[in-house]
Amino acid sequence: MANDTPPPDWATHVKKSFEAEIREAKHLLDFAVKRGIVSPDGRGVSDNVVLTIKKAEDLLTGDKTVGAAERAEFERAYRDLAQFVSPVTAATLAATAESKDEPGWEESRWGHNRATQWSRRLWVWTIIFMVLAVTGETLEVTFGAAAPPIDDEVVSRLWGWLLYLPYALLNTLLPFTYGGLGACAYLLRSAHVFIHQRCFDPQRIPEYNSRILLGVVGGGAIVFLVAEIPDGSGGVIELSAKALGFIAGYNSDFLFNTIERIVAALLPKISDTTVRRAEPKPRVMSEEQALIEGLLDRLRISKDEEEKKTIRGLLERFGAKP
User: Fold this and answer.
1) Does the predicted model carry a pTM greater than 0.85?
2) Which residues form the domain of 301?
3) Cross-strand partners of 237
4) What is the 3-state secondary structure (H, E, C) of 104-133?
5) Does one domain contain both 242 and 120?
6) Which of 5, 14, 113, 278 has the greatest number of CB atoms lying within 10 Å of its CB?
7) Is 119 in the same domain as 204?
8) pLDDT per position in the chain (322 positions), as tens?
9) 102 domain residue, yes or no
10) Strand 236-238 relative to strand 228-230: parallel, antiparallel, unpaired?
């Protein structure tokens, strides 16, 4: 029989967890009061929530044992407060700490909180994509759309290709570059809003990083899928590969919606063609073949030897083997 008795340090764990929640609730309450947050109907944080959290704060300074009823009352108040200030949470406040007095404040060259650190790293990626884009545009203006003239001599031909190769490579990668630049532009715009509203969630950083990669891939892929965009009035909007790449990077739904439209347009046609090819063609027999088939069937079921002999003779006349 399993031992259900909690370990000796379980009480310590529960106490520390409860104290951490009290600090988080205090941080949220201070934020709501200082920002003057109100509900859509104009109400602020309820007095009962404020009183319950303040009573819980007093428990941190004493050695009083907290009962289940007091913990439950605090949890309900914490729940109501969290719903009131949503999408701001204790984690987002720590990630956007504005002073040394707030949890989450760090001393780092990238910034004093996780949101600022990630935002500044995003600046670096944005600058890298901008440099690649400007370099590609400069080479395109310098060389034009064609390769530099190449002489017949081996050395001149090699030198010409060495000059042309960077341009050709960057020109090919430009849609991917603009896709990454579009993704960075979207993330920078969103990050500034999240930081200002104190709702930047560090748990979504992997998602943001994936969006940059998705923007790069989408910026290159959309060029192969879209040449023009309907304007809704029967006309079309023609965009360059670089513009399409930027749009696909800025709005990843643009790429996925395009792929879904292509799949919806192609799959029914492919399915119908496959079915038509798989359907067996009906067998068309001439009158002579039909007569031979009939004689063979009659020969198989006949029990009269004279009749069988006659049928075999008829089959031999038609050149068929009985």
Assistant:
1) no
2) 287-317
3) 229
4) CCCCCCCCCCHHHHHHHHHHHHHHHHHHHH
5) yes
6) 113
7) yes
8) 455 555 557 667 777 888 888 899 999 999 998 888 888 888 888 999 999 998 888 877 766 677 788 889 999 999 999 999 999 999 999 999 988 888 888 878 888 899 999 999 999 999 999 998 888 888 777 766 555 554 545 445 555 566 667 667 777 788 899 999 999 999 999 999 999 999 999 999 999 999 999 999 988 888 777 766 665 566 666 777 888 889 889 988 877 777 777 777 766 655 555 555 555 555 555 566 766 676 677 667 767 776 777 667 666 766 666 6
9) no
10) antiparallel
